[in-house]
Amino acid sequence: NSWWEPVLFMAAIGVAIVINEGTNIFLGEVSFVTRSVAAVMQLAVSMDYAVFLLHSFARFRNKGMSTRDAMSGAIVNSFSAIAASCVTTVVGFAALVLMRFRIGPDMGIVLAKGVAFSFLSVIVFLPALTMSTAKLIDRTRHKSLLPSFEGFGRLVARISIPIALIAALLIVPGYLGQKNNEFIY
Question: What's the average model confidence in pLDDT over 78-89?
Answer without folding.
Answer: 94
